[in-house]
């Protein structure tokens, strides 16, 4: 999630822009840059580094320009380099653009523009916007060019643009990614998030989806996609700066749980070819003989990422019919695993810096295994050690307990499994098309699952004094149960353990009694009846049961003490939404127990040492 800041007002822009970037640093970034207009001259500074370094560079320049844009980049396309840092310019360096989000069709647009003589300098998707505006402005004017450029883009984005021929105008446009505007003290300010505006105003104008706007010192004009004026009253935002960084949520973890529909949608953008009925994963060389020849797949990871790997392994076997297993990186690295050119390794890691996972990857590479990574941080060690990386696009995850990173890992692994199945011919076209449709619907199902926040909070209040929990799930949702138990353990410190439902009678059922609650996942699908049998055996022993079921499942509702109803989705993609009420339950139990969900005791966000 990049940070955007734009200013048009009576004061020198550079210090105000840099201060705004500093307030957006919590979003995570790897590069920073700004552009200031002085008359018809663009002044640009950018670097692959911190905002403080950029400020030091600019401080000595004393730029007088009173209009500009500034950016912090969380890399999604193109390495972490100064060249790829924003702002990006057109051929004649009279237009500067900064963007948050993903332009899905950037390759087609770039090819078209290069064919028209445009020369590109970076590997980013954003740069196409600068050249598109350059090509369109002569005939449409700058505002018209911004609208037309936005109309040509596919994806989820918000961008700010300045043009040397309009020295007192700042242009903005968005689709899906957020953009907020404030007007105060003769200035107009735009940003990707509220914290950057708070020093100037609490009266916030939210730009609507598909809208664009012109800003000038003390004024704004909003237009819809057709260029018609839009009237929009500002909203008063009562938050403190700290609250604003959490988007008004009490904790980063809760904010990140609620960001999951967007994070999963971003992870899928440009990777689902609905018309062809299959994924489109240019980033992964799955056709390369080294990978396509693999006779089995080992997924290696730790913690939550290992739970995602369990899901990925099951889906690879189901859809690609390739032997697959999820192995704890800490076990693999000290064991005697059978690795080699016929064993492909998929390393899953949010941070890309987890010591055990990196060690397991080194072992795999020494043995000649091809290594793919699923990772959330561009440029992290894992992405440098792997042969190729499929990036999750969760943005920065501040909460130590992983939430949006997990669901984006599930989405990424599902993409790989479907693609692998298509390439191996084990997934019939109709099933591949259905799978792609199912994945495309996942963000919506996640959004529906978030409506369980209230019921989850009620259950948390009722069960906050429990000493133990059992979590049960089967097949695709055994990892869901494991992840739900880990969430509860790591932020509320209540002991919780997860088992595949079929294991219950091989021991765990001995623990069941009225003070030992169970959370069971029994959504619509091939193992629902078996899970309901588990539930009835538990209740026969007076064990309380919280059941996750598909909406409208009356038998399930009658089977348990409490039911959390989830939207109906294809069984194989149900984990993406089923985990949400478990995340919410764990969060609210932690809050009820006065634990800090963002900074749980004894834990670090990334375990970079053994
Ligand atoms: C999950 O909530 C924990 N924060 C932890 O288990 C984490 O998933 C694990 O340390 C792996 O981290 P990684 O994904 O960055 O490799």
Query: Into which percent range does the helicity of residues fall?
Result: 25-40%
Helix/strand-derived category reads alpha/beta
Largest pleated sheet = 8 strands, antiparallel
CATH topology of the largest domain: Glutamine Phosphoribosylpyrophosphate, subunit 1, domain 1
Count the domains.
Answer: 3
Major beta sheet, strand line-up: 3-2-4-1-10-9-11-15
The best one-word shape is globular
Put the structure in a nutshell.
It is built from 20 helices and 27 strands. It is α/β, with parallel strands linked by helices.
Structure description:
The chain has 610 residues and is of the alpha/beta class. The chain has 3 domains: 241 residues, Glutamine Phosphoribosylpyrophosphate, subunit 1, domain 1, CATH 3.60.20; 193 residues, Glucose-6-phosphate isomerase like protein, domain 1 (Rossmann fold, 3-Layer(aba) Sandwich), CATH 3.40.50; 164 residues, Rossmann fold. The protein has 20 helices and 27 strands. The strands form 5 sheets. An 8-stranded antiparallel beta sheet has the order 3-2-4-1-10-9-11-15, covered by helices on one side. It has a 7-stranded antiparallel beta sheet with strand order 5-6-7-8-12-13-14, covered by helices on one side. Helix 3 packs across helix 4. The radius of gyration is 25 Å and the shape is globular. 56% of the residues are buried. The site of 2-deoxy-2-amino glucitol-6-phosphate has 15 residues, from helix 9.
């Amino acid at each position: 999630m990049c940070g955007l800041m734009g200013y048009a007002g009576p004061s020198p822009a550079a210090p105000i822009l840099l201060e705004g970037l500093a307030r957006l640093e919590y979003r995570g970034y790897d590069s920073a840059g700004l552009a200031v207009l002085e008359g018809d001259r663009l002044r640009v500074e950018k670097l692959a580094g911190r905002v403080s370094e950029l400020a030091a560079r600019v401080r000595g320049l004393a730029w007088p320009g009173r209009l500009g844009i500034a950016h912090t980049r969380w890399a999604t396309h193109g390495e972490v380099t100064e060249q790829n840092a924003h702002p990006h310019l057109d051929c004649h360096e009279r237009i500067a653009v900064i963007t948050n989000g993903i332009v899905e069709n950037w390759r087609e647009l770039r090819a078209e523009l290069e064919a028209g003589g445009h020369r590109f300098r970076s590997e980013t998707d954003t740069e196409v916007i600068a050249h598109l505006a350059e090509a369109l402005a002569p005939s449409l004017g700058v505002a018209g060019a911004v609208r037309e450029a936005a109309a040509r883009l596919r994806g989820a984005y918000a961008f700010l643009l300045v043009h040397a021929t309009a020295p007192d105008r700042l242009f903005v446009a968005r689709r899906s990614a957020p953009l907020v505007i404030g007007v105060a003290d003769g200035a107009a300010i735009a940003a990707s998030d509220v914290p950057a505006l708070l020093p100037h105003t609490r009266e916030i104008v939210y730009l609507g989806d598909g809208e664009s706007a012109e800003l000038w010192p003390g004024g704004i004009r909003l237009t819809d996609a057709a260029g018609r004026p839009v009237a929009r009253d500002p909203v008063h935002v009562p938050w403190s700066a700290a609250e604003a960084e959490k988007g008004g949520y009490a904790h980063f973890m809760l904010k990140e749980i609620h960001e999951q529909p967007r994070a999963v949608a971003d992870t899928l953008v440009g990777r689902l070819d609905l018309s062809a009925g299959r994924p489109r994963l240019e980033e992964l060389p799955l056709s390369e003989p080294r990978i396509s020849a693999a006779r089995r797949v080992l997924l290696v990871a730790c913690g939550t990422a290992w739970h995602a790997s369990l899901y990925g392994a099951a889906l690879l076997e189901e859809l690609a019919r390739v032997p697959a297993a999820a192995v704890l990186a800490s076990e693999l690295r000290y064991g005697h695993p059978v690795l080699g050119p016929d064993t492909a390794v998929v390393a899953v890691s949010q941070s890309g810096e987890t010591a055990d996972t990196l060690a397991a990857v080194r072992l795999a590479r020494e043995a000649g295994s091809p290594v793919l990574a699923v990772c959330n941080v561009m440029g992290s060690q894992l992405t440098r050690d792997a042969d190729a990386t499929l990036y999750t696009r969760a943005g920065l995850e501040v909460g130590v307990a992983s939430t949006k990173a997990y669901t984006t890992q599930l989405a990424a692994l599902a993409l790989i499994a479907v693609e692998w199945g298509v390439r191996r011919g084990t997934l019939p076209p109709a099933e591949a098309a259905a799978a792609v449709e199912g994945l495309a619907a996942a963000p919506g199902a996640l959004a529906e699952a978030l409506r369980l926040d209230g019921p989850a909070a009620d259950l948390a209040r009722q069960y906050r004094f429990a000493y133990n929990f059992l979590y049960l799930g089967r097949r695709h949702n055994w990892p869901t149960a494991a992840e739900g138990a880990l969430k509860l353990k790591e932020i509320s410190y209540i002991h919780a353990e997860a088992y595949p439902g079929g294991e219950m009678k091989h021991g765990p059922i001995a623990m069941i009694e009225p003070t030992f609650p169970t959370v069971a996942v029994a959504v619509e699908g091939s193992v629902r009846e078996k899970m309901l049998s588990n539930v009835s055996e538990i209740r026969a022993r007076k064990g309380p049961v919280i059941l996750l079921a598909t909406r409208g499942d009356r038998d399930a509702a009658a089977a348990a003490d409490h039911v959390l109803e989830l939207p109906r989705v294809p069984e194989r993609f149900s984990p993406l939404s089923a985990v949400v009420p478990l995340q919410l339950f764990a969060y609210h139990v932690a809050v009820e127990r006065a634990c800090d969900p963002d900074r749980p005791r004894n834990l670090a966000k990334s375990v970079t040492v053994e």
